[in-house]
Write a structure and sequence with these properties.
Order of helices and strands: EEHEH
Strand order of the largest sheet: 2-1-3
Number of strands: 3
Strand content: 25-35%
Helix content: 10-25%
Largest sheet: 3 strands, antiparallel
Number of helices: 2
Distance between the termini: 32 Å
Structural class: alpha+beta
Length: 91
Amino acid sequence: MLNFRSPETLPLVNLSNAGVSRNGRWLVRGVEFSISPGEIVTLIGPNGSGKSTTAKTAIGVLKPDEAMSSASRASRSAMCRRSSPSTGRCP
């Protein structure tokens, strides 16, 4: 299988040492990853471990309290076009 993706392709989503806190308590902290076009990512963990908070921070729904996150505008509109009515969520 050939991969025609350019090595300079920017990630659709990028988290760099991101953290979200509420009421003086860290919900997630030190999260770091990027998602490139064509990648499929699954967040796995027990209830209350910060999967939803991490996902919302990654796509820009939540603003991190430390570090940085970025989701390109093009990636958000692509996610909206692909989201099904059953998901009930479009960033």
